[in-house]
Structures are given as C-alpha cells and as structure tokens.
Amino acid sequence: MKVIGLDVGSKTIGVAISDALGWTAQGLTTIYWDENEFSSADKELQTIIEDSEVSRVVVGLPKNMNGSIGERGEASERYAAYLEEKYNLPVVLWDERLTTMAAERVLLEADMSRKKRKKVIDKMAATMILQGYLDSKGGVI
C-alpha cells in the first residue's frame, strides 16, 4: 500500500506518492481547488487514492518558526480532518516548515525558469513533506 503526501495551499494542492515499500516519494501532480469548498478536489483525489491503492495520507502542517500554528496551519488541520472522514484513511499531519523554500532552492539550483517553477513548486513541496515522513518511518509504513 502507498502513502500520499499533500502540500495544501489556498488555490492548489501539491500531490506526491510513495513507492509500495514506503522508501521514496515522487511528485505526482498539482490539483487546482477552492479551499472554501473542500469537495472541489475530491474527484481528482479519489481517483489517485483508488488507482494507487493509498493506505495513508500525509498532510503538510505549516507551523510558524516558533512552533505555533497560525491560520494556514489551522486550515490544513481542518482539511486533514475532512480527508480522514471522507476517505476513511488515517491522516498524519507533518511539520512542513521550510519545505516550500527548500523546494524553491532545489528548482533554482536546477536553473528552472520562474514560469516552470510556479508549475511544479507545490508538487515538489509535497514530495519533500512525504519524503520527510517516510524517512522518519524507515520504510515501515
């Protein structure tokens, strides 16, 4: 069974998926959605969850640098609760501090244009969130 990683933003959700053994995360797609209507991402997520036989969801939790949870973190917590109920899967919130900045740095080092970075940054951040989770589990998901 695979694990899906989500970088939840106000307009997009970056999606990454693990391999079947839980060792590596790979960027999959970016879903465009309306965060005021959680169900706006359901169709695409449902397809990914079913096709990939997902057994767990990891949602990035954007904490402030001091560890507190602000408005974006609370939004991620609400969405995680929605996902858990909607798909009847365990959902893990994973500290995502600095993942978007790290993803941006990787893409800059790859000399990717700003336009191309904008298209893949969320997927890259989701990959980093999921890989951090997988690494903490040592391949035991």
Structural overview:
With 141 residues, the chain is of the alpha/beta class. It has one domain: Nucleotidyltransferase, domain 5 (2-Layer Sandwich). The protein is built from 4 helices and 5 strands. It has a 5-stranded mixed beta sheet, sandwiched between helices. A hairpin with a 6-residue loop joins β2 and β3. α3 packs across α4. The chain is globular, with a radius of gyration of 14 Å.
Task: Give the secondary structure arrangement, pairings included.
Elements: E1 2-8, E2 12-18, E3 25-32, H1 42-51, E4 54-61, H2 71-87, E5 91-95, H3 99-109, H4 114-137
Parallel strand pairs: 1-4, 4-5
Antiparallel strand pairs: 1-2, 2-3
Helix pairs in contact: 3-4
GO molecular function: hydrolase activity, acting on ester bonds; nuclease activity
InterPro entries: RNaseH-like_sf, YqgF, YqgF/RNaseH-like_dom, YqgF/RNaseH-like_dom_sf
Family: Belongs to the YqgF HJR family.
